Amino acid sequence: MRFNKLSVGLILVAAAVWGPVIQNRAIAAEPVGKMHTANMRWWKKDRFGMFIHWGIYSQAAGYWHGKSIPGGGEWIMDEAHLTRKAYSTLHAKFDPIDFNANRWVRIARRAGVKYIVITAKHHDGFCMFRTRATHFNVVDDTPWHKDPLAMLAKACKKYGIRFCTYYSIQDWHSRYTLPAIGNPNQGHPTWQPMRFTANGGGEKYVHYVQRQVGELIRQYHPGIIWFDNSAVKPWVTRHGRHIAGWTYSYAKQVFDDVRKLDPTVIINNRLGYGLGDYKTPEQHIPPRGLPGAWETCMTINGTWGYKRDDHHWKTPAILITNLIKCASGGGNFLLNVGPTDKGIIPQPEVQRMLAIGKWLKVNGQAIYGSHRTPFAQALPYGYATQKPGKLFLEVIKWPKNRTLVVPMRNAIIKAHLLANPYLKLQTASGTVGQLVYLPAAAPDPVASVVVLDIRGMVKPSTFQGN
Ligand code: FHN
User: Fold this and answer.
1) What is the pLDDT of residues 159-200, one digit of tens each?
2) Which end of the chain is more exposed for a tag (fewer CB within 10 A), N or C?
3) Atom of ligand 1 nearest to the CA of 122
4) pLDDT beneath 70: ranges in the chain
5) Ligand 1 surroundings by CB, under 6 angstroms
């Protein structure tokens, strides 16, 4: 068959036009239930998210009848051994008159946050969204009668931030669940870990979950559904007890439902049983990262839900370094704020979020869309991230001899600081790798980023440097 120039040209044009369409159709049509969604790309590029724990527990603020209650603010129903009736006095007074979704999202945007994950329902079972599955929700059962998730989803769309929802499988209010110890409506129940009621309570509860997950997807189109029960699979609770009765079959039903309703919704790993798109280390950063997709979630103080007397604030330097550590390990960082019952994000959390945003304004290109460090061993002076043709060195310890030793065989084409792109840094090739000569003072008190333009991806060498 003879091809003249015209037919070859037409084939090339057709390939250029239809290639991406076919490829996209191939992604979109990938069989439901595959572990990875088509759009992990946005998640891996965005790197930095804001967790928001907000519910009627925020009103208790860590106290019950004037007594300070230990543990997370969002755990007060369990930690204070409250019956459902006692706990339900909170929603009757929940009236967040200072809540402003646009203000929250503007803070997130100034912080350099790219996605927000808010608690739609925590373990207490109170729903912070419009739902027909239970009256125990913020629209029907508070004097406020508003839907904060709808307002936040709208504000996120306005400011270009991905809206995502947290949903707890653990539920201490459902008619199909019981406390681990005691009676739900009298005495001093211990709720963790919840149990299902007899005669099919588990099946009925899963249907309740499926109904609400459907509402979340249809009403708010979240980028992620951040399921929760515990930080350790398979559901070993923080007290070391398993959640009775949550089976693989229940987890798979919910997982498959999400995939069917919207295959682009990313699912974390806390349905349990190895299901989900990414791992979720909590309150710590795996030293060398984890294989595959992962995200560390962390509080700024010691609690997820608001506690008025928890002032154990991490410094901005620690938080910026934690973000760098996550990116260098190839993971995301989901940093939590716990607003008050009136809808105010505590000022110490705002200050720290904005300090991260200030650092990212100068150094964000080393974090957003970057890949994990190419080096098997830790660098003595800080961390590394990379993009094709670029190596970023996040220098925490500014070397006294003003020389960075980079354990790689690639020659450096150009070197500069992100904080001062006009200052070309001198470099040389040494026996131990590449050398970069730095100015006397670090431009940033926490972490200064040196960018090395190279050919292709980094070829690591054995490290013997400073
Ligand atoms: O028990 C919850 C806790 O309250 C909080 O929501 C964290 C966030 O990841 N998850 C569970 C503890 O692992």
Assistant:
1) 999 999 999 999 999 999 999 899 999 999 999 888 899 999
2) N
3) 6
4) 1-38, 230-244, 462-466
5) 72, 74-75, 228, 230-231, 282, 297, 304
CA of 238 to the centre of ligand 1 (A): 9
The one-letter amino acid at 184: P
Q: Which atom of ligand 1 is nearest to the CA of 53?
A: 6
pLDDT of amino acid 272: 87
pLDDT of residue 243: 57
pLDDT in tens, 74-92: 999 999 999 999 999 999 9
Q: Delineate the domains of the chain, giving CATH numbers in brackets.
A: 26-366 (3.20.20.80), 382-453 (2.60.40.1180)
